[in-house]
Amino acid sequence: MGVQFLPGLPKMLERVIQFFREVRVEFSKINWPSRLETVVLTVLVISMVVILAVIIFAYDVIFSGLIQKLFELFGIR
Predict the structure, then answer these.
(1) CA distance 55 to 49
(2) Nearest-angstrom CA–CA distance, 76 and 70
(3) What one-character-per-residue DSSP string does 8-62 give?
(4) Which residue has the higher pLDDT, 66 or 10?
(5) How far apart are CA 18 and CA 11, in angstroms?
(6) How far apart are CA 72 and CA 64, in angstroms?
(7) For the segment 18-33, what is each residue's pLDDT rounded down to a tens digit?
(8) N or C end: fewer C-beta atoms under 10 angstroms in the chain?
(9) Is 77:71 a contact under the CB 8 Å cutoff?
(10) Rounded Cα distance, 49 and 73, in Å
């Protein structure tokens, strides 16, 4: 009479294997973008980030200058 350690292990292992089989099937259904689409969209995203960073920097410089002028005007500092 043997003692069974972890009695649910074979069933759990089969469920894990089945999960990965289903993952492989689902991955085959994905409509992956082409290399060109990926490059174009990546360049677009990076360009937009740079443009927005420049705009935010410009607003920061403008408002910092305005606030500094207001401080000088009212003698603060």
Answers:
(1) 10
(2) 8
(3) THHHHHHHHHHHHHHHHHHHHH--PPPHHHHHHHHHHHHHHHHHHHHHHHHHHHH
(4) 66
(5) 11
(6) 12
(7) 999 999 999 999 999 9
(8) N
(9) yes
(10) 36
Within 8 A by CB and 6+ apart from 33, the residues are: 41
In contact, 33 and 41? CB cutoff 8 Å: yes
For residue 63, what are its two tokens?
Answer: 């408002």
In the 3-class helix/strand/coil scheme, how is 28-40 assigned residue by residue?
HHCCCCCHHHHHH
pTM: 0.61
Amino acid at 15: R
Backbone angles phi, psi at 16, to 5 degrees: -65, -45
Task: Say what the pLDDT of residue 31 is.
Answer: 94
Q: Which two tokens stand for residue 9?
A: 């292990």
